[in-house]
Structure formats: C-alpha cells, structure tokens
Amino acid sequence: MPNLINMERIPLKNNPQIKEDMIQKYLFDNPTVLGLGDLTPIQREKIQPSGGRLDLLFASDSATRYEVEVQLGATDPSHIIRTIEYWDTERKRYPQYDHCAVIVAEEITGRFMNVISLFNGNIPLIAIQLSAYKSGN
Predict the structure, then answer these.
(1) From first to last of its 137 residues, what are the pLDDT tens digits of the chain?
(2) Are residues 89 and 49 in contact, defined by beta-carbon separation less than 8 angstroms?
(3) Can you give the pTM of this predicted structure?
(4) Helix 110-119 to helix 77-93 angle, to the nearest 10 degrees?
(5) 131: which of 3, 24, 102, 104 is 20 to 30 A away, CA to CA?
(6) How far apart (Å, rounded) are the C-alpha atoms in residues 110 and 88?
C-alpha cells in the first residue's frame, strides 16, 4: 500500500529562492511536465521583433509550435495580452506551422477564463496552472 505524505505548498511569486528564470529552465529541460505531449525545446527568451521576449518555444512532431509564457502568481491582463501577441507574431513569421499560445501561471483566475471564452474558436490558447510543493528540506 502506498504511503501518503503531507507536503507544504510554496507560493512562488514572492519567493526569495525561486525565480521565474528557474521555472523557465525547468520547463525547457523537462517539457513533458506541461502535459502537451512529446515536445522538442527550441528556444528560451526568444527576442520578438516588436519588443519583449517569448519565454519558451517548443515544437511537436505534428508541426505545431507552442509559444509559452510563464507567470508567477495569478494571471493578469498584461501577461494574457503578451501571450497572445507573441503567439500572433510567431504564427505570422512562421506560417508553415500550426501555433498554440500557452500561459503557465500559479493561479488561473476567473477573469482570465472569461477572457478566454471571448476568444473561443479564434485563438488556440492553453492555460496551465503551476504549483510547487516542499518535500523535506
């Protein structure tokens, strides 16, 4: 019979030991944790022509590109817009691929879900909730 253990959830947004860069590196090195299938990492911090940097870019075997933005804390309007802008930029620059916007955040808010329902059918957008837990030290 398996042992069940209690683990302490760790908030990431203001955590002095865990930074967004660490989360990006972990996801880039371990893309299977996103649950999007067998992904190939392409680039981290990809500079965008319109300004800013796309956090992570992945590809699948089915010629789909995933433009991933990571946000510690709850989803906010600026990250939602940034995620959609980077998806749009990449799909215009590389029309030979299918593209999907992905936002990874600590909390997916109800407001975010309302915004997504407005875009339903027009923008392929995936939201993934990220949680961290302390196990031992």
Answers:
(1) 788 878 888 888 888 888 899 999 999 999 999 999 999 999 999 999 888 899 999 999 889 999 999 999 888 888 888 999 999 999 999 999 999 999 999 998 887 778 777 877 788 999 999 998 887 77
(2) yes
(3) 0.88
(4) 30
(5) 3
(6) 24
